[in-house]
Amino acid sequence: MTIRRVVPDISSAVLGQSRQFYQRLGLVEVMNLGWVITLASPSHPTAQVTLMGPDATAAIQPDVTIEVDDVDAVHAAMVEDGAQIVRPLQDESWGVRRFFVTDPNGRVINVVGHN
Known about the structure:
This protein is of the alpha+beta class. It has one domain (3-114): 2,3-Dihydroxybiphenyl 1,2-Dioxygenase, domain 1, CATH 3.10.180. Helices cover 18% and strands 43% of the residues. It contains 2 helices and 8 strands, in the order E-H-E-E-E-E-H-E-E-E.
């Protein structure tokens, strides 16, 4: 299993202001779906921050996103370990397959793979 990136997910009620703030820090917008915006370092593109309004397909907000090369294998490992899956594994319309799991601290982790 390969981890491609780990990204903090910041819940925001003011996405536009949050985007401007992080852009002033030097990050550039690399994805904007309206309710979720990802900004990245121009020199290190896997150094990212994601800003989130209400999630388009989930009732809860994740705290961290971990992108992996085989999301199905990670899901199977989490189920085998008895981890609490709080959002089932599913394909999303924007080209990812993901599920949410809680870590031992109660943080919600968005585990994602690109289709």
